[in-house]
């Protein structure tokens, strides 16, 4: 039995989403078919709205409804500190700590030779311009603690230091609540390297 | 479902579903494999820190009949490029370059212990902060040699003369000729310093590269020749090559 064209098109479109395979797309499409019309319309509206209203901040590249974003325009935040992260969702992770009151800069990725992502593909130029304008005293490099994130941090540090700004890197080591017995060699090495006096 | 354990070198990973990763790894005794690391993207996953490219370690995996993907049980990292002492962005950038080159040349389910040993020695050299330029040229020399496509550097195949004052790779050829036999124009030249470096590469381990002299000009000469050979035999330019070029600017 052949499938109706609209259903085939829906499956094809769903399959283009990350993490959705042929079976998953089919399951979701049949779910949409069984869902009441108003629920489907809410989903369609939400999809349309996110494309219409959510944009990227022209200053920090974070996602926002207004440009510049909430963080860049908030005078109560410390404009002398910029925390550099890879993706917009990393901003939420740092914000959860409620400790950091500075500004952000989202790179939209990390240097990844394996995936063909180079310096020109990241928002590095914007960061250098922000720091170059003056007023920034510290840049915190909060890229992921993996090979790509580390390469990005070292690369940025090399570009930022000549601008006369303090460049720091977030600490790496054993997670809170874990057991040292199960920590791997590299993590333990990094934890020892980043030890502090108490 | 048979369980296999082996020493392996992680080459690259891809996201799979919500929390998993597909891992491409080169085993010492069973060639290149692709497998699923369940939950690898979760914050407290047992695979955390073990899936970085060029990480060496013990791996256990299940193989199922009629399935291309194996299921990875655990990876116990023993050496990682992240241990690099005072590593530069260039050095860490080359991690991806080495992994991409090995991935291109390693064959699935075809054991190639020499390729594994080359990759594993690169991880050790990176962790010890080896000079990146020399390490990259050394790696290219050996990977091309292991594939049997590195042209002879001892003497000219045209006249048999021993290379003493350099050699030239003609524009549309993949052999080294002496300056007399080489066409008058074009081609990529290798000076005597570059040739001496390449000859030494054949005889020493990568952890001793620091003691080998290699000037900027000689390094560029070797890089040009190797790039030509790699592009010729892979029939494409690697993605990491472009990124490394941008990072160097």
Note the topology.
The complex is a heterodimer of chains A (198) and B (249).
Chain A: H1 5-15, H2 22-34, H3 37-53, E1 55-56, E2 63-64, H4 70-73, E3 78-85, H5 88-95, E4 102-106, H6 124-132, E5 138-141, H7 147-160, E6 166-169, H8 185-193
Parallel strand pairs in A: 3-4, 3-5, 5-6
Antiparallel strand pairs in A: 1-2
Helix pairs in contact in A: 1-2
Chain B: E1 3-16, E2 20-27, E3 31-37, E4 56-62, E5 70-79, H1 89-105, H2 113-127, H3 132-146, E6 167-169, E7 188-190, H4 192-201, H5 216-234, H6 239-248
Task: Describe, in plain words, how this protein is organized in 3D.
The complex is a heterodimer of chains A (198) and B (249). Chain A has 8 helices and 6 strands. Chain A has 198 residues and is of the alpha/beta class. Chain A folds into 2 domains: 5-53, Helicase, Ruva Protein, domain 3, CATH 1.10.8.420; 63-197, Dna Topoisomerase Vi A Subunit, Chain: A, domain 2 (3-Layer(aba) Sandwich), CATH 3.40.1360.10. In chain A, the strands form 2 sheets. In chain A, strands 4-3-5-6 form a 4-stranded parallel beta sheet. In chain A, helix 7 links the parallel strand 5 and strand 6. In chain A, helix 1 (5-15) packs across helix 2. The longest helix of chain A has 17 residues, at 37-53. Chain A is globular, with a radius of gyration of 22 Å. Chain B is built from 6 helices and 7 strands. In chain B, the strands form 2 sheets. In chain B, strands 1-2-3-5-4 form a 5-stranded mixed β-barrel. In chain B, strands 6-7 form a two-stranded antiparallel sheet. Helix content of chain B is 35%, strand content 21%. The mean pLDDT of chain B is 89. Chain B has 249 residues and is an alpha+beta fold. The radius of gyration of chain B is 20 Å and the shape is elongated. The longest helix of chain B is centred in the C-terminal third of the chain and has 19 residues, at 216-234. Chain B has a domain at 130-249. At the A-B interface, helix 7 and helix 8 of A face strand 1, strand 5, helix 1 and helix 6 of B.
